[in-house]
Amino acid sequence: MRIRVTFVSAGSVPESLIALVPQPARIDREEAAYGRRVTVFAHHEEPRLLAEALRAVAGKVAVGVVTEPLAAAPARLLLMDVDSTLTTTEAVDLLAEHAGVGERVAEITERAMRGELDFAESLAERVGTLRGLPTEVFAEVGPRMTLSPGAMELIATAKAAGALVGVTSGGFVQLVQPLAERLGLDFYNANLLETEVVDGVEVLTGKVVGTVVDREQKGRDLLRFAHERGIEPRWTVAVGDGANDLGMFDAAGLSVAYCAKPVTAAAADVAIGFPRLDAVAAFAFPSF
């Protein structure tokens, strides 16, 4: 089976690690804004076993053993999480700060992302604390959603490769939609916060309207976005950091954990542990 083994690091990639790939046909090396990339083209009949062996000794080096079709061609669709992936922030935590319940909500968010709490239940609890918050808060919180280092570069690389780019978020439409439009993304999905008018002021009711974007929905989002554009799932790449992203990891052709919680990193095909989102490009959109 033809494979592409990619090593990415913010520092050096040890030659001793590269040498563990048996019978390489070609080795490419590249300096990039995110650090160093080494790509080894080879054949191997047990790529999953090779990936496990390499990751066990790779340390801080991100390793991906990519099989066909992505071993020899760039991805056609990139789907990312938003909070703590595309951005460095958690939208619900920013909103909670305005409601005066920041610490309480941040603790619930952290436990949910580690997979310790049911996401839908934790979302309902967190959103409930926002009841009565004026919707004008979105104009204040939106600019505080800071992009991760390398986010713009990753999107540009994906677009240059002809790929579609989208996001699926456990956050909120009122914040994700403007961000997606500003970045020129092809699609998005997020939770819609319900509002009502009280004494002439539009405020949050503390509830979410419609289907919750949980682990399962993120998987459905990837398959739906791909189907709508005529792309087979094996040509897709999913990127996320929390347990809520595991559904789209299962659906994608290649899954990438980014500065992720341990349960998420362990489940992904690739785990990037340093804060440069454009390092995803080395695995999804390599130079051939």
Automatic annotation (TrEMBL):
Coiled-coil regions, chain positions: none
Keywords for the protein's UniProt record, in alphabetical order: Amino-acid biosynthesis, Hydrolase, Magnesium, Metal-binding, Serine biosynthesis
Pathway assigned to this chain's UniProt record: Amino-acid biosynthesis; L-serine biosynthesis; L-serine from 3-phospho-D-glycerate: step 3/3
GO molecular function: L-phosphoserine phosphatase activity; magnesium ion binding
Cofactor(s) this protein cannot do without: Mg(2+)
Gene3D superfamilies associated with the record: HAD superfamily/HAD-like (3.40.50.1000)
BP GO terms, sorted: L-serine biosynthetic process
GO cellular component terms, A-Z: cytoplasm
Superkingdom classification of source: Bacteria
Catalysed reaction equations from the record: O-phospho-D-serine + H2O = D-serine + phosphate; O-phospho-L-serine + H2O = L-serine + phosphate
Entry annotated with the keyword Cell inner membrane: no
Active-site residue list: D81, D83
EC number: 3.1.3.3
Family: Belongs to the HAD-like hydrolase superfamily. SerB family.
The name this protein goes by in its record: phosphoserine phosphatase
